[in-house]
Amino acid sequence: MSTTRPAPTGALNLSRTTATAARVLRQLRHDPRTVALMLLVPCLMLLLLRYVFDGSPRTFDTIGASLLGIFPLITMFLVTSIATLRERTSGTLERLLAMPLGKGDLIAGYALAFGTLAIIQSALATGLAVWFLGLDVTGSPWLLLLVALLDALLGTALGLFVSAFAASEFQAVQFMPAVIFPQLLLCGLFTPRDAMHPVLEAVSDVLPMSYAVDGMNEVLKHTDMTAAFVRDVLVVAGCALLVLGLGAATLRRRTA
């Protein structure tokens, strides 16, 4: 009787990780609508926002930097969760786990592939906001790009994680109100976090999107890199790594 060899559980293997990433990128190349969603929608949202506040450019400066980080996070969360779930439901993930491919290699490969697109997405959105839409920031635009990239990677990690708990693409979309919307309301975009009810402020202190918005606001207000900015980017990066680890832990075969 033949048995399926379990995937190795050791350290990450660079060749297996890059091979997984290359496979995902090849698949995405044949799905132009998904690529357009990831790369163009954040830019279109920023463009729309700029002209919504055409009579009040200062308002765009105030919230534009925050949304520069939030839009890529939401987009990458949505696309990654659906794309990864499609791999699960189509049986592709099942076949991959039957190969000598570790769970860490698989998750890292997905993160590398979507992270590559996140870099392009963040660069396009940041360049559009700063150099074409006139977003007025005190600090370096490169720091804005750094936070936007980390936010997109966090969205990728969250999407990989929640895909384990959805049985259909519709269910994956349903996770957005549960995972993204509370963070959007409590991140300080609509009102300062210290002006919220103490319970809500305490909850916002443990949500990664709060630190993404805080990091963007630090670049908006300060010419130099501040200690608060370093703290914010470390928290966002740490949350992304933690969620990727949880995603690897929930990755399992659905059949014996």
From TrEMBL:
It is found in: Cell membrane. Keywords: Antibiotic resistance, Cell membrane, Membrane, Transmembrane, Transmembrane helix, Transport. The chain crosses the membrane at residues 35-53, 65-85, 106-130, 142-165, 172-191, 233-251. Residues 29-254 form the ABC transmembrane type-2 domain. Signal peptide: none annotated. It is a multi-pass membrane protein. Pfam families: ABC2_membrane. Belongs to the ABC-2 integral membrane protein family. This is Transport permease protein.
